[in-house]
Design brief:
single chain, 188 residues, three-stranded antiparallel β-sheet, alpha+beta
């Protein structure tokens, strides 16, 4: 997995409506004031998958890792072990990370600047400050379930499981969820 530190500022332009009262409070006058400013951006260790093969299920597992505890990638850790190697280049992953950070801040800025109606954003001053390719301990397997093979990933730090098996326990027909299925396998 790649991790990126992103910094800089988002330029924005917006409008603030100011209400002015006369001294007798008989009428209110609204005045629209245009504002251009910057909002600071600092994102630490934004995770981006480094492999296309496991991305859909892997995205669900990423938030379960303690990223401060992972080790930088070193091929010596993988000697004589089957492993998924990265196939997403750093340049491509960095564009995705920058886009994710910008989208996150752009969506959140109207809440942070609630008195303002924002009309324009610019990401031109966002930059990737650093990046790392890190090695995540993930066990990968496939399990037969509900008539087909399903991808299952297990976080090697804490044992949390992610899968493409849909939890059908909320449906009216009887079916077993992933946790119950795995519990049955381990109990036997």
């Amino acid at each position: 997995m790649w991790t990126f530190d992103i910094g800089g500022v988002i330029d924005y332009t917006g409008e603030i409506i100011q209400i002015e009262d006369d001294s007798s409070n008989r009428y209110h006058q609204q005045q629209v004031r245009r504002v251009s400013d910057q909002y600071p951006v600092l994102v630490d260790d934004l995770p981006v998958p480094a492999s296309r093969k496991l991305s859909a299920v892997f995205l669900n597992l990423i938030p379960t890792f303690e990223l401060k505890a992972v080790k930088p990638y070193d091929p010596r850790f993988l000697a004589d072990w089957p492993a998924e190697v990265y196939d997403i280049p750093m340049a491509e992953a960095s564009l995705d990370a920058r886009s994710q950070a910008y989208t996150q801040y752009k969506n959140d800025l109207p809440n942070r600047l609630s008195a303002m109606r924002i009309s324009h954003f610019s990401s031109s001053k966002l930059a990737i400050e650093s990046f790392k390719l890190v090695l995540l301990p993930v066990w990968v397997t496939e399990l037969p379930f509900d008539g087909r093979e399903h991808l299952v990933l297990i976080n090697g730090q804490n044992g949390i499981v992610a899968s493409d098996i849909q939890d059908k326990s909320n449906k009216s027909r009887k079916s077993v969820g992933l946790r119950e299925f795995l519990s049955d396998l381990l109990d036997d």
